[in-house]
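writing this on my phone so excuse typos. first protein, seq and then structure
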Amino acid sequence: MSDLRLTVLGSATPYPSADNPCSGYLVTSGDTRIWMDAGTGTLGPLQRHTRLDELDAIWISHLHADHSADLLTAYYGLLYADLKLRAPIPLFGPPGIADRLAGFLTNGPTRSPIEAAFAVTELSDGHSTVVGSVRLTARAVEHGLPAFAVRVESGSSLVYSGDTAPCAALTELADGCDVLLCEADGADPAHHTPEQAGVSAAGAGRLIVTHVGPGITPAEAVARAGTRYEGPVEYAEAGATYTM
């Protein structure tokens, strides 16, 4: 029996609502803890479940602020607050992520010590790594800038789309997975509609729609995805936890 768990820290886009931060998730398996996307407002609810310095890794799908902005305040927490960081936290993200963070965080002639907080690994198509009891496999997807989906495996399997248009890489990655966590932002060429999320989930055992744009309600997104997908469909409500 797998103990792979997904906790939704937030799922709003493109900015947080009063009760829902932007995209961010905590993936756990046994003692392994991975913060998957660090969108605006997700650092707060993350701490209901784990301290920053207890994370085994952080995984970032792409560098839009609604998926990565809370890395900035996490940096201050790790280096300049009450935490005692034993070693930099492994940070997996798109090419250029360290320089992007430094660009925001450097306030003088000396570059901020990003690498003292984060041990950065740049993702590439097909990148695979093991973090604790979890294997992470990335595929490059189509979002108009470097962006990655990820397959998380620890007995059972979870695939997270990040932000992407429907593409073969995501369909292949999700084939045979237990759960597909798929964005459903709306009719934009760089995103999925709910119906397209249903199509992308064809090979998955369950679909959870997330990153639902403000133009439709979560209930509408679930219903629309269900017109193209025969399995169970749920909405990634902030605070919800799913066991694979």
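second protein below, same order as before
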Amino acid sequence: MEVIKEIFFVVLQVCFITQLYFLIANHRRLASYKPSGDAPVSNLPISVIISARNEHDNLKNNLPIILDQDYPDYEVVVVNDCSSDMSDYLLLEYEKQYPKLKVVTVTEHPRFKTGKKFALTMGIKAAKNEHLLFTDADCEPVSGRWIARMADKFKGKTAIVLGYSPYKRQRGLLNLFIRFETLKTAINYLSAALNGEAYMGIGRNMAYTKTLFFANKGFAAHMHVMAGDDDLFVNQNATSQNVDIEIHRDAHILSSPKETFRSYYRQKKRHMGVGKLYKNKHRRFLSFDAISGFVFYALLIYLAVVSYLPWMLLGVFMFRLIFQVAIYNNIYKKLSCADLIWYLPFFDIIYYIYLNLFGLLGTFTKTKQWK
């Protein structure tokens, strides 16, 4: 029994070192990253593209905010994707009010099942500009300078710009965890991008060029998968030279979170189903983090229960926690989630259980619908 405890303690130390490596080698750069405080000066023509299926209420609330952005040259292309609500009438009225709005209508074919990737492709083809900015109907820009901030990042070889989209703050434990998980996901993909290894982006707030899209045949490589229009596209087309990030608060996009565990489960199950299609190096990278974090907490709890070197265990836990706080504190502030630092000791454990659970489910998941 003592031998087993010793072996587990060694494994715990290996996981501890692995977790410190992720913090130092990956997340530290984001902690020191400073968003530009200067006013953006870009005047690139931009096409904002939104794919919407039965989003009447969200379009009514959020579309005027996007159509009133403080930017000199842009259009908004809304793809009304097989909606059965009153979206078409609303968009017809908005077209009369806003010259910047262009509506593309996709109708369901009896023998062809359309999805978000098809709708986005129609929107991209209809867009008149080279530089494309994407968001969703349930998303609201924090400021009128969202387009300006994102457009200003298209410099040099940059063909992909990764933004940040936190969820709205509401009451309840579920909302806290959704915001925490979204923050951790953002820390991972933004840090990877800064390290020249961008592996995903979030379609609620990202941009890329039309040339990049068509040069790589759009979503053709993964059109058979309903989800993944954002992360799989970035995973297959990002290089160490063509990606930049924008995390200035003016460029944040707020999104409405799920309000029940059931709807959140369906959403995450759909998202996790595409992770198995990432490049092998990215899958290994993410797996090392997920597994080492889970095993670290599992062995820490087990060894604590059997009272094996309790003070040593407490020291290991506290050292990692203090190290996390030292690195994450600045990041949490930059990403407008400073309040979540207080929940780190509790939610970090839940997060690694969640990662492994949904990672396992994702292995056997086939996404059949995007809404």
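The radius of gyration is 22 Å. thats all i got for now
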